[in-house]
Amino acid sequence: MGRMGTKSPRGGRRAGQGGGRGGGGSKADSAPTFTGRKLAERVKTAKGRTISSKLWLERQLNDPYVAEAKRRGYRSRAAFKLGQLDDKFGFLKPGARVVDLGAAPGGWTQVAVERLKGRGTVVGIDLLPIEPIPGAVLLLGDMREPAQQAKVTAALGGPADVVMSDMAASSTGHGPTDHLRIVALCEDAFAFAEEVLAPGGAFVCKVLKGGTEAGLLAALKRAFASVKHAKPPASRSESAETYVVAQGYRRPAAPPAA
Ligand SMILES: C[S@@+](CC[C@H](N)C(=O)[O-])C[C@H]1O[C@@H](n2cnc3c(N)ncnc32)[C@H](O)[C@@H]1O
Which residue, 12, 88, 123, 169, could crosslink 181 as a Cys pair with Cβ 3.0–4.6 Å? Predict the structure, then answer.
């Protein structure tokens, strides 16, 4: 997950680990209000910490989204990114069937459950275990494996209205390698979306700055009525991540009979 804000550079989860409840928020809740912000905190003791770990900790302590996620019981500051994307594009609707790929620790799933308002289905899957979230089905496994995809499909109980992916492999520190890995995960997510999406459905996926790779973008434009890129305010400006939001899925026409 690299420096996405829910893991320390050493891989331990830190922010917003609060219980299994969705933060009880509404659409208006997706933008935290920052009244009474504290002066920037500095980490005084570097004992036993690497420089990157010290900088990460300082950033966490001074990040209003981290504090707000904790206050609202969201398991990650990433929850705000999904809320802000949904505020802009409106793809999470009560009654929907939603797939959350790369769901751990569960911030996006919490927001999806809230916005479905008790109607619909949310299925999350991750390589890492996820603490239960009332109102969601959570699976442990690699979404690229057909057996895991079959479990997601079965849990959905029908065609999906939204397939969303915040998947990321842990950073190698080598930019081009990280880039290729995230592109590959996005292609995997899209391939699965094509299997499960209902006509009119939406696909939301993390990509890197510069937008979606040309080949994938062309495929998305063929498959969806609208394809947009957006970087929600909660996504750190120094982070290369951005999101592609594709809406209005058109099932590919069956090939003409031979
Ligand atoms: C940035 S985190 C997701 C944060 C999440 N959206 C939230 O709000 O809490 C990315 C996740 O993608 C998961 N992931 C990466 N590759 C995966 C795969 N092939 N199948 C399932 N999950 C994967 C990682 O394990 C990691 O937990």
Answer: 169
Decide which of 255 and 198 is more confident.
198
Cβ atoms of residues 123 and 100 within 8 Å = yes
The whole-angstrom separation of Cα 224 and Cα 15 is: 35
Give domain 77-249's CATH number out of 3.30.420.140, 3.90.1150.10, 3.20.20.70, 3.40.50.150: 3.40.50.150
Task: Categorise residue 60: left if φ over 0, alpha if ψ from -120 to 50, beta otherwise.
Answer: alpha
Q: Which atom of ligand 1 lies closest to the CA of 104? A: 27
- Strand 121-126 with 224-230, pairing: unpaired
Query: Which residue is closest in CA terms to ligand 1's atom 19?
Result: 142
Condensed to tens digits (0 to 9), the pLDDT of residues 79-93 reads 999 999 999 999 999
The pair phi, psi for residue 60, each rounded to 5°, is: -60, -45
